[in-house]
Amino acid sequence: MILRFRVYDDGVGLRYEFPQQKELNYFVIKEEKTQFAMTGDHTAWWIPGDYDTQEQETQESRLSEIRQRFHDAVNWGNSSVAVFSETGVQTALQMKSEDGLYINIHEAACIDYATMHLNLDDRTMTFESWLTPDATGMKGYMQTPCQTPWRTILVSDDARDMLSSNLILNLNEPCKIEDTSWIHPTKYCGVWWEMIVGKSAWNYTDEFPSVKLGLTDYDKAKPNGRHGATTEKVRQYIDFAAENGLDQVLVEGWNIGWEDWANMWKQDVFDFTTPYPDFDLKALNEYAHSKGVRLMMHHETSSSVVNYERHLTDASTS
Asked: Which pTM does this prediction carry?
């Protein structure tokens, strides 16, 4: 095995490389034991380690406080939660030492390998890599020659350097797409996170125990008063985007079918052309364009590929 380092002005990357050899061709990864020893009880900005979701609110605490705050930090109302430890956190993990040094732990070039969480030993303030397993509990199936992703550490006395750093970019392989002119990076805000944190709801009404697309009359339904994707709300987001130089506004929960979509087997879960009564798609699209902003319409497929394909023609022609 080769332990390879790449050192930059603002940090370091390390990975494990396995050359092809007579004694090692195929092997299964049960654990990875990379450790990151902290020099103190740093302040950390973290979200709970979870195999299924990153839809958690960022916490700010000392490393020693993660355990006591963990349970309340988890978004237990999410459709899928799979936490693994009371001191487990996700990467990228941002920290600040007592003397003002910012530290960021993450990874790069994660290809054919499990993604990395971190598990904290809060007696020694040491993090250890914790890989996401498959259904059998294994963490990777390798064939030499092969390598792990890079484990990255960024260090700076200015937190803004974490965002402007090219270390992770440089540790990834060069882009294999020759013509990238059609790729346009986008900055956006949107109606989504307020539902995740419980401020608003995706569904328009609570009146029905279940809905049937094409039969349920939403125009006669009683609004629940919590629906997030309304015409008025999205106009506010469009104004914010225009004032702050953002390109687009993401809208989730605008289309009918959110009342009973989760944890049910339904042939017709959503359609992707019909808005709720309180969402004027045409007027909002025109308003956004008048402000130099575009709408990004979220489609929740709910993993129902057949249902989504059924609507593709109508969605592309409407």
From this structure: 0.86
